[in-house]
Amino acid sequence: MADNVKIGIITSSDRASSGVYEDISGPAIKSYFSERISNETEWEYRLIPDDYDQLVATMRELSDLKCAIICTTGGTGPAKRDVTPEATEEVCEKILPGFGEAMRKVSLQYVPTAILSRQTAGILKNSLIINLPGKPKAIAECLDGVIDAIPFCIDLIEGPRLEFRERFGKAFRPGEKSKK
Amino acid sequence: MADNVKIGIITSSDRASSGVYEDISGPAIKSYFSERISNETEWEYRLIPDDYDQLVATMRELSDLKCAIICTTGGTGPAKRDVTPEATEEVCEKILPGFGEAMRKVSLQYVPTAILSRQTAGILKNSLIINLPGKPKAIAECLDGVIDAIPFCIDLIEGPRLEFRERFGKAFRPGEKSKK
Amino acid sequence: MADNVKIGIITSSDRASSGVYEDISGPAIKSYFSERISNETEWEYRLIPDDYDQLVATMRELSDLKCAIICTTGGTGPAKRDVTPEATEEVCEKILPGFGEAMRKVSLQYVPTAILSRQTAGILKNSLIINLPGKPKAIAECLDGVIDAIPFCIDLIEGPRLEFRERFGKAFRPGEKSKK
User: What is the distance between the alpha carbons of residues A110 and C44, in angstroms, rounded to a whole number?
Assistant: First the structure.
């Protein structure tokens, strides 16, 4: 039987957190993983402003709460208030540059400004932190570009064993037979 | 009417700066942007040796002079005197790894040694700094790989609104209709 | 006549170094270069645990022994004991991000988990240090993705002039005629 898994979602947005508009990015991340992952899932959701200290504190909190995956949305561009990658680098013990490369590569198929994204990913204790873009469409595109590497990554950091729903094929693990 | 824009060019070369040969890289950057950008443009041009301190000081000077774009040429390889990326990382508040990735990807279509380039880009106040290679042909190839992301990047760092000349199509901005 | 060259190989593996199994990764690196490089070659081989301090000390030792190329194998993943990229960044004066990008790109053709590799490369004095994966098949794939940039890189850091065996074509050097 598959392990339970806890997934953390951090929406970083000055406007959404102050009620100017509703956060649609956080829910987009939740529906992406709900549709894909067959494990029983618990969610931790935080809506905060684009603030470095709150980002740092919230990533640490969700890691302490044993989230295997922590996805941020927003704050990865070149503007002054964009500080999500900096906060991610601050808290992570290891940075995984392949995630940023892969996500920019996917996004470049849709918009030339994907070059401007500074999104990255890294490991904090037993959590994989992934920076996602702000727009729901771009969130799904980026996750499609990296999702097949996530279950084995979580194995390597001693998290729960993730499984995909039948229609997505077996989660890839090197050395295990695929039945996709 | 389009804003005026100021573009800075820093040629970093021991030999060109000491008069051993003429700098052709700086002028190649100028003609690339002149041909592409339709805004009224002012230029700041500096020819300096491959020297870390002078690179740092010159990037800061051109940013203080309100250059929206600052292009360097030279000094991005693995040799001892190649220190342009280090100087760029020193002055920039944010590094944009997508630029280096995109430029290496383009150059790899021409030479396998493109892997050796450490070129990067970043934000210093209201300036986008981009490291370009030394050879005019490679300069144009690299700029072709990133030019479509530049106008929106300059918007995000609160610089002037850049426009392309008619034949290059409308400068891309997410959410704006393209008429290319 | 071609220069002699010294190549260093560092296998970083807790289990191989404690005798649990035999190291097959180090020998795979040796046969790759033996087959490709026509220079007279001397080898320095070290088998050590996944230990940061020993990695740092061993890379420095092999650089002091004038190895033009130092390849590591193992320790580039997201797990706690994976510290090879950290040790590489500690000793290197310059990091060459194009190597990691190119190697991940090649490996992604074979396994989606290539995204998880944090492998990098850099320059320590007159040595090019390259992090390779642990599996012999992946070692050859990654080296295929970067080998054509290595001879010119070694020229730039004032190492010996590397040549390829006839059947691989002339080693690429910008500005030199190819006779491939």
Answer: 48
